[in-house]
Amino acid sequence: MRFAFLLLFLTTQLFAQPRPGDVYRDYLWLPTSISEDMPFLRVGGKLDYATSDDHFPNHLHDNGKIQLPFSVDLKYAIRAEMNFQRVQSHVDTRGLRLQVNDSDWIPILPPKNIPNPATNYMFHDYPTVKLPLKQLTANDQNTFRLEVDSTQKWGWPQNIFYAITLRIYYDTDEKAHTDGKLKGIKNKQAISGNPTLSTKPNSKIPIKRVDYMGYYKDFDWEGNGSYQDWHKSEDKGVWQNHIGSSSEGKYSVTWNTEWLPDQHESMRVSARLLGENGVYYILPAKYGLSLNRDYSVELNPSYHIPEDWATREDTFTTKLAVHGDLSQAERYQIAWRSWSPCYARGMFLNGHKIYDREDPCYDYAEHLIESKAVSHLQIGENEITTGMTPLINGKMVHGMEVQYPGMMLKVKYRKVLPQTVTIREGEYEGIPHFIITTPAATYYYDKAGGGLSRLLDPTGADWIDFRREPWNEYPASAASAFRGLPNFVFGGEMSGAGHPGHQKCRSEQVSNNQIRTTSIDNKWQWMWTFSEEQASIEVLKVDPEQPYWFLYEGTPAGRFEPGAHFFGSSQQGLTWTAWDYYKGEQQYDDYQWAYFGHRDHDYALLIAQAQTDELSDTFSYLGNTENGINSPTGMVVFGFGRAKGAKPLMTEPNLFYLSLERLRNRKMWHRQMSSRAKKMMKSKQ
User: Fold this and answer.
1) Is the peptide bond before 127 cis (omega within 30 degrees of 0)?
2) Which of residues 15 and 458 earns the better pLDDT score?
């Protein structure tokens, strides 16, 4: 099946939460009448609120319909949404949906940045869905109902809810609201230390409380897999993990920036004002903010996060990468959110125990460890492992559940990390690598393989994500060992040279920004040159008896979502067509450059070859199952000099370029890539 269209956002899902300039009211519903001694509403399974009087009293609902106990102000309303504090408490729970006032059911999807299928992971998030205003009434007769699919792998589907908020947005010019002016910082200011933020009232409606929030890169307490965001989470309707709140005086808070990570783009700060009339107003943001300090904080998200991470089942291991100079490291922090951590049985960083267990049982917790034991860390790949919860009194207990995105690491360094090309040695997948850090990208180069196994953009997305297992299985290895760049040699004794995971090469650093790789039979040689903006690969020597190709086989924006990915080239322009490699759908043409990306991501990967030719090039998507592009994961298949039948065509030395480009105006993406490709190919690198 071929998709030749842009997959649009679902109009009912992920409707934007409040942003600067919005005026709105929140109507908060809390499950305070639960029969159990637990502060949440169960949806699904044998304790579903709609069927279990032991959990939720029957007299508080009508066949699952719960009445909201407040009148809703719809005067000057322009839109509405419902927000949830939701925990995926049993994996494989699917089909969560909402019904308001007996209207059509509305799906509530998992976080979009969790790997597919997201329902295989534990998560705690804050989904928001759009509600048509016509579904609501202005009295206290509004009702809602929640349900999930009845099927689940062990027969007990369940989501739990700590809070549900009905939110009504209003016409800013018509609805009376408080106002003020954010003080303490200015647009385009370089932030030093911990500034004091305050708000000067500017309205006849008194301010009851001010909540300050910022848009920057930091821990993902929102649970949506996004680290660059307006950061704040909620506990039963109360903001937390934000800059701070104040209800008195000048509404002042101290913005503690000590552990704020180094930022790859400018920051913004805003304030949410709650008026005495119960209406919120979010002030216009201060923009263009940066950090001015003499040290660095590196943010290191987890990757290869386990599914169904419940410690009663087994030990589990996740990976985190460190790229800074550890001789300058002072301290580190590790943060995560869990459920029922009283049943944890230890957590280990590279074999060193850093955590045991703590309360509560049968509730969620947020954890933050800070340590000076930086000797526990290593350059490149690090592992965090949780111990297995044993039987207690001969019975299986709940265990600690680790919720997506798993453990998150920050490392604080005495000095500012250099914004130049740095080459260090480390490991990935147990294999020695050169790790090249630049302002634009981080490259993991397999010394013995002679190719890239990881390519990270400034957001942390991995555009390759090579893994060793499964190895050489078609199509399953599209999720693992087929991935890499440039994967030069296919066929002959040196097959695999230039491909991560293979051992056909020797690599050495020959300057502060260059790596030379030679095949073990000395018939192949190429030179990588890294700059602050891009990388180039010059093929210096080829085996005259063996053609080669240049491949990009990986995960644009760290994902596999054909239909949401785009592909552009020197020949075709930009297309959203999702060709299915497994079903024999491949695009063949003669490209000089090409680029790849995802509709929801701010970066694109641009690849070019210096020499023009008339050789066949190809593009398609390969899923890791017989379902083709509908598989859970897979990879892009792109090749310069690749003919039908997976046949390499290149026979002469050549020069190739690649760069990760920050996207600008969506309508101008192709023009931007075309201009950048031409500039890149004119460079001497």
Assistant:
1) no
2) 458
Let me know if 201 is exposed, middle or buried by CB neighbors in 10 A (0-12, 13-18, 19+): middle
Contacts of 352 (CB under 8 A, 6+ apart): 373, 376
Place of tokens 């922090």: 333
Q: Which helix (H) or strand (E) holds 643?
A: strand 642-643
Alpha carbons 651 and 554: distance in angstroms, whole number: 24
- Tell whether the model's pLDDT for residue 5 goes beyond 70: no
Reading the block at residue 37, the tokens are 């001694």
* Tens digits of residue pLDDT in 412-454: 999 999 999 999 999 999 999 999 999 999 999 999 999 999 9
Ordered DSSP codes for 497-533 = TTSTT---EEEEEEETTEEEEEETTSS-EEEEEE-SS
> Other CB atoms closer than 10 Å to residue 484's CB: what's the count?
29
Band of pLDDT at residue 14, cut at 50, 70 and 90: very low
Tell me if 30 sits within 8 A of 10, measured CB to CB. Answer: no
pLDDT the model gives residue 396: 82
Q: What is the reported pTM?
A: 0.93
β-pairing, 286-291 vs 190-191, is parallel
Over residues 231-240, the mean pLDDT reads 96
- Measured at the alpha carbon of residue 671, what is the angle toward residues 670 and 675, in degrees to the nearest 5? 115
CA 83 to chain centroid, in Å, comes to: 20
Report the side by side order of strands in the sheet with 525-530. 505-511, 514-519, 525-530, 535-541, 655-662, 603-609, 593-598, 565-569, 573-575
224 touches 268 (CB < 8 A):
no
What is the pLDDT at residue 1? Answer: 35
**Rounded Cα–Cα distance for residues 360 and 340 (Å):** 6
Both structure tokens of 38? 């637990």
Distance (Å, rounded) from C-alpha 437 to C-alpha 420?
A: 8
DSSP per-residue string spanning 577-631:
---BGGGT--EEE--SEEEEEETT-SEEEEEEESS-----EEEEEEESSTTGGGS
Which helix (H) or strand (E) covers residue 680, if one does? helix 669-682
3-state helix, strand, coil in the chain (%, to 5): 5, 40, 50
